[in-house]
């Protein structure tokens, strides 16, 4: 290959990266349930190879409320998808920078499935409080395409029989032909970065006062998933636990370190798995 060809390929690659970035939604912030006016890191605008993408979604009918009362517009924040936002996202971004060599953006990216093809720019996506979601028919189609095209979805912080039923209703519309199964401990996702054979229930911050690791009737933690035809885990389901709180409260002396340590390791494994499988 001659020098002229090499220069042409490099120029083409730079153009391609620029083209992808041009069609990404810019960084944006929304009001959240718990954490407002969280200061932006000074490098928040830096381009990076990995971003904590947070799924935006409409709430299920039985849970249509927002902080302060009223129905509100879920696409403008102050809805269930903003739980732990943005502190959990930014704490995890800092942790992942320290624990790996992944070039991580310091701020999150809220992603709306209704925003055209934007979701395809974010190959790893996190959904919180999915026991309160209700995907529309169009969002179901977009989510299925996103996952089958190589996307990875981690969901967390929902508890008990009722919330599982609400979560499963939307997820089974996404994949009516694919079962939700328990992820076996020998699965690579638990060993790609940290060996996580010894896992335990990760409670929300309520544990500090209640002393209970569970919520509602969610007594036993489950790490479940949905696989594609090649055995790649597409959906990683953290049920009856609250990894989001373990990230959000990782800097709190009152919240036990052992829960944050495991939460960060699980999420880090999921990120590295999604980038290598």
UniProtKB/TrEMBL annotation:
InterPro entries: DUF4159. Gene3D superfamilies: Domain of unknown function DUF4159 (3.40.50.12140). Residues 78-275 form the DUF4159 domain. It holds the Pfam family DUF4159. It comes from the Bacteria. This is DUF4159 domain-containing protein. It comes from Paludibaculum fermentans.
């Amino acid at each position: 290959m001659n020098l002229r060809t090499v220069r042409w390929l490099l120029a083409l690659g730079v153009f391609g990266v620029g083209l992808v970035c041009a069609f990404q939604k810019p960084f944006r912030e929304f009001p959240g349930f718990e954490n407002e006016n969280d200061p932006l890191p000074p490098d928040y605008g830096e381009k990076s190879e990995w971003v904590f993408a947070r799924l935006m979604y409409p709430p299920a009918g039985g849970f249509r409320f927002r902080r302060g009362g009223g129905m509100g517009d879920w696409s403008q924040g102050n809805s269930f998808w903003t739980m732990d936002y943005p502190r959990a996202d930014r704490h995890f971004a800092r942790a992942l920078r320290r624990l790996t060599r992944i070039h991580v953006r310091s701020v999150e990216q809220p992603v709306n499935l209704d925003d055209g093809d934007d979701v395809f720019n974010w190959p790893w996506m996190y959904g919180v409080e999915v026991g309160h979601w209700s995907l529309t028919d169009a969002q179901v189609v977009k989510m299925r395409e996103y996952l089958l095209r190589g996307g990875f979805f981690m969901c967390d912080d929902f508890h008990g029989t009722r919330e599982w039923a609400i979560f499963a209703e939307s997820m089974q519309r996404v994949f009516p032909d694919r079962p939700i199964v328990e992820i076996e401990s020998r699965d690579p996702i638990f060993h790609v970065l940290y060996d996580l054979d010894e896992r335990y229930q990760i409670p929300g911050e309520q544990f500090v006062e209640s002393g209970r690791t569970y919520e509602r009737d969610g007594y036993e933690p489950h790490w479940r998933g949905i696989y594609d035809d090649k055995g790649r885990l597409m959906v990683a389901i953290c049920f009856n636990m609250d990894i989001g709180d373990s990230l959000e409260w990782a800097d709190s002396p009152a919240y036990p370190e052992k829960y944050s340590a495991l939460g960060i390791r699980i999420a880090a494994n999921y990120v590295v798995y999604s980038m290598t499988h």
